Amino acid sequence: GDLVTRDASAVVRLAVGASSRVLRSDGTDPSWATIETAIGQANARCSMSADQSITDNTSTVLNFDTEQFDNGTVHDTVTNNSRLTVPSGQGGRYLIVGQIGFAANATGDRRGVVRLNGTTTLSGTQLMTVTTASVAALYLVATVESLAAADYVDLMAYQNSGGALNALSGRANTWFAMFRLGGQ
Q1: What is the pLDDT of residues 115-151, one digit of tens each?
Q2: What sign does the CA torsion over 36, 8, 183, 119 have?
Q3: Are 66 and 46 in contact (CB under 8 A)?
């Protein structure tokens, strides 16, 4: 079941790969990889396990401590848990989608913004003058962008209700996701 191959400098034996692995090449040497790694489909979806307070009239980066899935080490629930990061060798086009569920409140504006590398706004959504106190508001933000390895995106929430207002926890309320669509 082993393969005899030639790497960059010599004839070598490549041991048979583990179950559910595929043969790939880095342009020089063959190796075994998971299907996700071989086709480069880095993706992740994460959410919050607790509400996050959004200070009045202040843009706030949201933190995500729960993962629904993470293929390719896109997200970390502890270190920089606000970020979805393009893994090494996985630059390309990405669909980036986030949703913010704000607690019910009848005053002020609500905004959601996706940023690149902590500075550049990629996409945003805004609803001005919320008119009912009994309905929590959900805001969806989406964009398709070309990203390079090590680029990261984060999701920011803004509200100006006159006091602090929660971004609601739970995978149906506030979540953030990134899906690799293909090469540059």
Answers
A1: 999 999 999 887 665 656 555 677 889 999 999 999 9
A2: positive
A3: yes
Burial 127-152 (b: 16+ CB within 10 A, else e): eeebeeeeeebbbebebebebeeebb
DSSP per-residue string spanning 129-166: S---SSS-EEEEEEEEEEE-TT-EEEEEEEE-SSS-EE
List 144's β-bridge partners, or say none: 95
By CB neighbour count within 10 A (0-12 exposed, 13-18 middle, 19+ buried), where does 49 fall? exposed
Q: What is the pLDDT of residues 148-161, one digit of tens each?
A: 999 999 999 999 99
Token readout for 113 is: 């913004």
Neighbour-count burial of 6, counting CB atoms closer than 10 A to its CB (0-12 exposed, 13-18 middle, 19+ buried): exposed
What's the token pair of residue 129? 């003058």
pTM for the structure as a whole: 0.78
Q: How many CB atoms are located within 10 Å of the residue 26 CB?
A: 9
Distance CA 109, CA 165 (A): 11
Rounded Cα distance, 54 and 162, in Å: 11
How far apart CA 1 and CA 124 sit, in angstroms, is 53
